[in-house]
Amino acid sequence: MESAQDLGDNEDANRSAGQIHCNSPISELRGLDNLKVSKYHPRGSVLFVEGQRPRGVYVLCEGRAKVSIASADGKTLVLRIAHAGELLGINATLTGQPYGATAETLEHCRIDFIAREHLLKLLDRDKRIYVGVAQALSLKLSSVVEHTRLLFLSQSSSEKLARLLVKWCDEHGKRTAQGIQITSGLTHEEMAQMICASRETVTRVLSEFRRKHIVSLVDSSIFVRNRKALEAVARY
Known about the structure:
Distance between the termini: 50 Å
Helix content: 40-55%
Strand order of the largest sheet: 1-8-3-6
Number of strands: 12
Shape: elongated
Order of helices and strands: HEEEEEEHEEHHHEEHHEEH
Radius of gyration: 19 Å
Mean pLDDT: 87
């Protein structure tokens, strides 16, 4: 349980968060700074849940979050990993329909929240921002299409995981002496949820890649040592 001192520190941090500019498709909305609520959220914070009535949009200013859907029997599919600058819950906020997915932070995140009624009024007064929102929605759709291709056009779990790792190399991989470093922040269970596999399968495939010197695993990072071999598994 947080102490009074901790709560005070959090309140001070959240006030400071509101003073830091957050770059997003709606960041230039006139009057936004007076209506947004800025907070820091620890890893594992659930921002909204699939099927919940839309309260508003969450602007991911710093950090990453996973966006997932769940079946009636409790199976989870991670649709995508959201990065800084993305709008979470924007579809539901604009349409008034329930949130179509669940959003949960993967690490310490700074997030701006704008209530639905406030956002709609601001957009109505400043229609030029709609272009940025439309582009954000288009990029989100493209991401979902790419992930669907990974899931349904791959023939094995090894191919799916290889495609995912190649994608991460391109998106946020860092070249090092040990290879291309990927720090996904995901557990094997969460990676499995991205490719519709079991945690045991992901662990087995990663061990197989490691034996073939395609990747190496160091702490929470994956180092892609042989990208061409990985692409061969991914059938690129």
